[in-house]
Every structure is written in C-alpha cells, then in structure tokens.
Amino acid sequence: MTTITFIKPDGERVDVEATNGATVMEVAKDHDMPMLAACGGSLACATCHVVVDESWFEKSGELCEAEEDLLDSAHGLTNTSRLCCQMKVSDELNGMAMTLPPME
Ligand code: FES
User: Is-contact 59 92, C-beta < 8 A?
Assistant: First the structure.
C-alpha cells in the first residue's frame, strides 16, 4: 500500500491508502475527494487537475504531449500541475502530496 496526501481546496489534508496500479484519479474518487474527473480518465477533460508538491513533481512521471495540451485549459495551471488520471500509484509515490484546485 502507498500513502498519498490530498490537500483539499479548503486546506484540509487527507492521507489515503492507495493501491498500487490504480490511477491517482481513481484513488481520489474512491475517497470522495472534490474532483470531477468528467471523462473517467480518457484524457479528454482536464477536470482531474492537481498541483503536485514541488518536491514530488519529478517522481510523478513524464507528461505525454496530450496531457500537456489539455493542461493548458486547466484552471489555475502551475509548473507542477498534472492530470492525475495519468499518474499511476506505485511505491515510488509513497508519501506524495498534491493540492486539489477548487472545482470550476
Ligand atoms: S479524468 Fe479527464 S483528463 Fe483525467
């Protein structure tokens, strides 16, 4: 099991146990985090946008071109923004924290 911390828009930190192999978006939805994830992970919406803590961004993995393009339309884009349906949970991510932007 891997622990991931979600920081809600109101600042509340929630530590959750995540199953390796799941996407971070699936983990967020399973734990009722405020996230739309409208396209269900098919890389077509940008409503699974998260801001990864700077110290963890490198470990979050490579962004493909489609993710980068979609992120351009995300509200509140930052240098460490990711679409979390494109991040797979693994031991590498144990302890990772990310902020959930307010839902549009
Ligand atoms: S859930 Fe739509 S792009 Fe991630």
Answer: yes
In this structure, how many other beta carbons lie within 10 angstroms of the beta carbon of residue 32?
A: 8
Residue 23 Cα to ligand 1 middle (Å):
11
pTM of the prediction? 0.96
Asked if residue 85 has its Cβ within 6 Å of ligand 1, the reply is: yes
Atom of ligand 1 nearest to the CA of 84: 4
Domain boundaries along the sequence of the chain:
2-99
pLDDT tens profile 8-41: 999 999 999 999 999 999 999 999 999 999 999 9
The closest alpha carbon to 104, from 39, 31, 66, 49, belongs to: 49
Q: What architecture is domain 2-99?
A: Roll (3.10)
Helices (H), 20-103: 24-30, 65-71
